[in-house]
């Protein structure tokens, strides 16, 4: 039975996802601990036998047996069982020049190998070949769906509008108001690099000295909404 853990990570908290690595119920530790203990006990028994029980000539035979088993163990590499690409396949993949994406090449390899296996009689009949191709098409459709999820991004205008709406809701944006010297015949100069020498005059006050200051951006409501907006913004900028 599947053990759910979504309730433990429903709320963002410090170290929330790291605590999942220590769970026992439904974990990989509970699934494999018996096999691990059996392997550890076997390894420990062989190691103690080799070091303290066997004679010197018996150790030589044991070492030859270990080398023999190690050579045959490499005939079926773990990378092949896991479906990883071999070095020869990687060279062929990288040497193929194409103006389009090359993610479809392994599917072509699979199709050619399936057709060759049918010709050599390794695939029993055309019905079995058809089932293989249907599984390939199902796998290809899932990969295509995943590719489309990554390809379609949220328009920037949605992010900007939502960001401005939250800032306006909690007064995080400066108020748009007319400058107090807008209608003055001799307006005061603003605080700029060109007026820096006027700062030494005690009576000088630039046109922005009484500008309304917004509340702090770290107010609790705004701090709650801002992380919710920050995630799509970061995903959009990195896409």
UniProtKB/TrEMBL annotation:
Which keywords annotate this record? Answer: Cell membrane, Chloride, Chloride channel, Ion channel, Ion transport, Membrane, Transmembrane, Transmembrane helix, Transport
Where would you say this protein principally sits, based on its record?
membrane
Q: Say if the entry is tagged with keyword Iron.
A: no
An example of a Gene Ontology cellular component annotation for this protein is:
chloride channel complex
Tell me the InterPro entries matching this sequence.
Answer: Bestrophin (IPR000615), Bestrophin-like (IPR021134)
Question: Where is region (Disordered) located?
Answer: 213-239
Tell me if Ion transport is a UniProt keyword of this record: yes
Q: How does it sit in the membrane?
A: Multi-pass membrane protein
- Where can this protein be found? Cell membrane; Membrane
Recorded catalytic reaction(s): these are: chloride(in) = chloride(out)
Q: Which domain of life is it from?
A: Eukaryota
Locate the transmembrane regions by residue number: 31-53, 65-85
Q: Which GO terms describe its molecular function?
A: chloride channel activity
Q: What does this protein do?
A: Forms chloride channels.
Q: Which family does it belong to?
A: Belongs to the anion channel-forming bestrophin (TC 1.A.46) family. Calcium-sensitive chloride channel subfamily.
Report what the protein is called: Bestrophin homolog
Q: Which organism is it from?
A: Chelonia mydas
């Amino acid at each position: 039975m599947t053990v759910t853990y979504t309730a433990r990570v429903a709320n963002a908290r410090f170290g929330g996802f790291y605590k999942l690595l220590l769970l026992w119920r439904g974990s990989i530790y509970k699934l494999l601990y018996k096999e691990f203990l059996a392997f550890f006990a076997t390894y420990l028994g062989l190691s103690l036998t080799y070091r303290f029980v066997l004679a010197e000539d018996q150790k030589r035979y044991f070492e030859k047996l270990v080398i023999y088993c190690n050579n045959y163990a490499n005939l079926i590499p773990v990378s092949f069982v896991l479906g990883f690409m071999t070095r020869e396949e990687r060279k062929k993949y990288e040497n193929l020049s194409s103006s389009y994406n090359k993610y479809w090449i392994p599917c072509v390899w699979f199709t050619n190998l399936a057709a060759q296996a049918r010709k050599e009689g390794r695939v029993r009949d055309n019905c079995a070949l058809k089932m293989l191709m249907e599984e390939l098409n199902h796998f290809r459709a899932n990969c295509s769906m995943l590719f489309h999820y990554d390809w379609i991004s949220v328009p920037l205008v949605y992010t900007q509008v939502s960001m401005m709406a939250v800032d306006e809701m909690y007064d995080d944006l400066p108020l748009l108001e007319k400058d107090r010297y807008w209608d003055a015949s001799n307006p005061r100069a603003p605080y700029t690099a060109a007026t820096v020498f006027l700062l030494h005059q005690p009576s000088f006050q630039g046109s922005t000295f009484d500008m309304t200051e917004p509340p702090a951006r770290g107010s609790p409501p705004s701090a709650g909404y801002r992380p919710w907006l920050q995630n799509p913004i970061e995903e959009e900028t990195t896409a």
